[in-house]
Amino acid sequence: xxxxxxxxxxxxxxxxxxxxxxxxxxxxxxxxxxxxxxxxxxxxxxxxxxxxxxxxxxxxxxxxxxxxxxxxxxxxxxxxxxxxxxxxxxxxxxxxxxxxxxxxxxxxxxxxxxxxxxxxxxxxxxxxxxxxxxxxxxxxxxxxxxxxxxxxxxxxxxxxxxxxxxxxxxxxxxxxxxxxxxxxxxxxxxxxxxxxxxxxxxxxxxxxxxxxxxxxxxxxxxxxxxxxxxxxxxxxxxxxxxxxxxxxxxxxxxxxxxxxxxxxxxxxxxxxxxxxxxxxxxxxxxxxxxxxxxxxxxxxxxxxxxxxxxxxxxxxxxxxxxxxxxxxxxxxxxxxxxxxxxxxxxxxxxxxxxxxxxxxxxxxxxxxxxxxxxxxxxxxxxxxxxxxxxxxxxxxx
Length: 397
Hints:
8% strand, disordered N terminus, globular, alpha/beta, 17 helices, Beta Polymerase, domain 2
């Protein structure tokens, strides 16, 4: 693979191999699995990073043609992860069916969201898409009746979940036998989120951008491909800027890869641009699509990226380059953090590059922001800085 500048990276991350495999197969004639030789080159840390991303089953599938040629320890670990994921996915499907049936009984329409929707819709096998819970969207007025119906089935409400007027979903409901959580959404994002400032994620717009579908022979709704793509990108950037970098953020890229591959000729970009009226969503989509393009995972018409770049003022060329560098090193390659640059420093950098304001000012202030992180109350104190220097000298975290 080559970068946008035509240079081959010094080392190719295993996660990038998996994303490229998703583009090329398994149903494509261009399928290119991961060879035993390639798998033999990777370190245990890389395998663990893929496992932490929930993508060991995908690695098993990609390496399956040559599994007999890799060490038994790795082969058995991948097989175990694949079998476990299949059982887990079966529990998720059973739970989703039960929730859909309960909603149908009380005549409440259900829109599937996130993993449970796209895994069934576009993945070659549903268990390849890791997910921690099931997310559904219902009309706000039906929340109480749906919760009541689900609780009567033996689900348990998570009482530790704090609810307030800003919440976009109720307290998660837990199935004690299947060990599955269900989040019942009434909106896609919190009311206070910048993504809610325009109509794109408003209830009327989401309803307009929902289409009838089926899930295991049950009638449901799903977001249109256009809105689902924007939702994936917006949720991904939200997670990256609100939490420390973690490999579990990689599946969002895989979601986008599979969606774009399936809808390559049907995605209505003009329609998407017609209602894409939120700058945060535009910037999020721009960052994700530009990154996929840079990694050679999807080729977009030049006008698509240029329109996204011109219609938002949060991410310029330099900011995009810095964001991509952070993603390359710490999300995809899983490069270890150091005491000089930790996981929360990476989050600070991403937030700074996606913030509003002058591009020049953001770039000039970045070294100061990293040296004196805003989230550290005593960041200007001599004690904090000396302690930081001492940790660097000791090579500690």
